[in-house]
Structure formats: structure tokens, C-alpha cells
Specification:
Blueprint lengths: L20 E5 L24 H13 L4 E5 L9 H11 L3 E6 L7 H10 L3 E6 L4 H8 L4 H14 L3 E7 L8 H11 L3 E5 L5 H5 L1 H4 L3 H17 L3 E5 L13 E2 L5 E4 L5 E3 L8 E2 L16 E2 H7 L29 H12 L3 E2 H8 L11 H13 L3 E6 L2 E6 L7
Parallel strand pairs: 1-2, 1-9, 2-3, 3-4, 4-5, 5-6, 6-7, 7-8
Antiparallel strand pairs: 9-10, 11-12, 13-15, 14-15
Helix pairs in contact: 1-2, 2-3, 3-5, 6-9
Amino acid sequence: MKKSASGGMKAQEGNDDIKACYEVFLNYNCNAKCAFCSQGDFDKSLNAPLREILRRILSGYKMGYRKVGFTGGEPLVHKDIFKVLAFSRAVGFPFIRVQTNGIKLADREFAAGAAGAGLTYCKFSTVSHIPRVHDRLVGVPGAHEALLKAIANLRALKIRIGMNIIVTRETVGALPATVDAYMRAGVGDFVIIYPVIMGALKKNIGRLGVSLPEAVPMIAKAMFLSRSRGINSLCLNVPPCFLKDDVNSIIMGNFNTVVTDPTGRSWDLDENRGESKIYGKPCSGCAMKGECAGAEASYIEHFGWKGFVPFKGKIDTSAGRREEQGARKYFTDNERCFVEILNRENGIPTARVLELAKDIVLCRDCEDGNAVMSAGEALIKAGLIKRAEKKGVYYWTLLKPGLSI
């Protein structure tokens, strides 16, 4: 139940001591037509053949990766997706993720099939919590309803859930409300993505493009809202000079991820993170230069350097970490996992908690007692469990057996 990084500018999910993720693009075709899609110009006919996908999965494992991710396009429309998931599990990957719009997972049988094949973590993508807005921007009537069904299906299957929220001019003002709505639906962590201007978004930049000075205040509010309720949140593609009081919330590097696409091309995200970025006059003398790879060239082309101000002196990384007082209404995946364990066996020691956690897909990244202590402390404060010490060993008891959070 080790918590995913909430700071340190890392995009990793879980153990930093192993290579984070081997990412495989299965295809570029999709069952949606998102007006903000970065892959709008990609060849939708490109689908990696099953034999090549399996070869890549095995190669990633041999290279030392213990997390594998599948994306697209829409990876769940690949005809061999269940075989891909099952092979990943058979090879030995303990962490198997898909990134999806959720439409396919609205079908309960399909969701159960994905979970049964090996899925352990699902990262949904969305743009709004308002059905008509979401459906219009995704280009599929009923897409929002399908997304909510997908979340409910995976929660019932005890699959861990995260969400990417893409920022557009039409939705930026409601970002805090969007985060709130999906927290209520059971999402356990968020990445708010300021999109790169390419593909479909480039074609729709006049309608959907929003500058960083306009977007960042709402991004910051949305992230603070989630963290104030104990839910992890980060942001992507926001330069640190726009979030000086909360730079730990920015994903800027240490992806430790290799990506392969349907053509067989492969690249390292860390080695190529500055490929499309540039430094400008405001970057001169900035304390974050180097850590920050600069601004997206496509962004500067459309919006210029307004709002870019260099860091000077010491960087404060302590902001944005306050917790909401009073009764807890939202819980992390680690905390949900802990309650699930105690529903199976109550009044057990930390060692037994760790042992049982290995069989629960909801979290599946336990490594030591520190994760148990962290989640346990939060649940004690929430009045849901108690801890007792016997001969130097902590025992954990769920106060209301059968509780679901």
C-alpha cells in the first residue's frame, strides 16, 4: 500500500528502486473523436500485431521493468487486449495498467474480463464532469455516462483507479468541480494535464486553447481541493514558474519510462523530454533551469512568454499540503485497500496486513510497514480503525466490520 508520489516532481507510480514503466502503444485507432486529442493526425490504421506486442512485453520485463502500461489510441479496442493483459501477468508483471476513455469498460462483462486477464490499474481520461460538455468534446453521445459506469464497474472489481483531466478553455473554469465530482465517484488519484498543442487541439486552438496564466489558478485550486481531502494530485506540462508555491506537484522528469509505438519505434521519456521545448529570455538565470526543460515551442508560438518569471533564490516546496479537518469523505486507494484487508481478517498484525495485501488488486504495491502505518494513521484519525500494541507488534482492528469506503 505504498502511496504514489505526491511530490518530488516524479511521474512514477510505486517503487523508485525498479524501472518504473514499460509503455506500449497498441494502436492509434479509437472509439472516440476527441477535439483535444494530441494524436489527431496519426495514422489510425496502425495496429501493432499481437506477436510483436508480446515480444515487446517480454523484452520490457527482461530489461528490468516491473510495470507495464498500454495506451493508444484506445488500447481497449485492440482485438487481442485480453491476450495482451494475460501475457503480461504470465510474464511476471505485478502492475498492469491501461489508459482509456472508459467507454469499453462500461460493459460489466468486458470490465470483468479485463480484470480477470490481469488488469491492476486503470487510468481514465476525461475533460469534464458535465455530461453534455464531456460528450461534445469527446465526440461520443453517452461517453460520460459510460465513464461513470466504467468507474463503478472497476471499483466493484477492486481495481485501482486514477484519472487524467485535460485542460481546455471550455472546461478550465470548472476544474475544481470536475475533480470533486470524480472524487465522489471513487477516483483515487489525479493528473491534471495542460495539453501539448498538436493534433486535433492544434486545429481547434481558437476554441479550446487557454493560456497558462489563465489556466494555472484553476489547476492549483483543483489540486489543492483533492489533496485537502487526502487524494493525490499532480499536474503535467506546467512550467514550475507558474506554480512557485507548489513545485512538488509538477511532473517534470524522472519518468523512468520507455515507450514503444505501433511502428516499432522506441524512445526514453527522460532522454527526450526536452525535444519539443525551448528556453527563452525569462529562463535566463532561473534556479530551475535544467530541472525544467523549458516551454513547449508550440505553446510559445500561440501564446508567447507572458507569465514566465524565473525562480530566484530558495524554492519553497512545502505549500499545498494542508489537510481538511473534520470527517473524512474521500479515501486513497491505500486506505481502501487497508479496509478491504481488515474486512477479510480483523485484529491482525502489520505483517499479516502486508501478506494479505499481495492478493488484492486495489493497491498491490505494498513493500513494508511504512505504508501500513501511513494508511493506518489516516484511518485512525477518521475513526474507522484502531491500533493496539502487544509485545512491540501493532495490531489493527476495523471498528465496523463490513464497512466499505
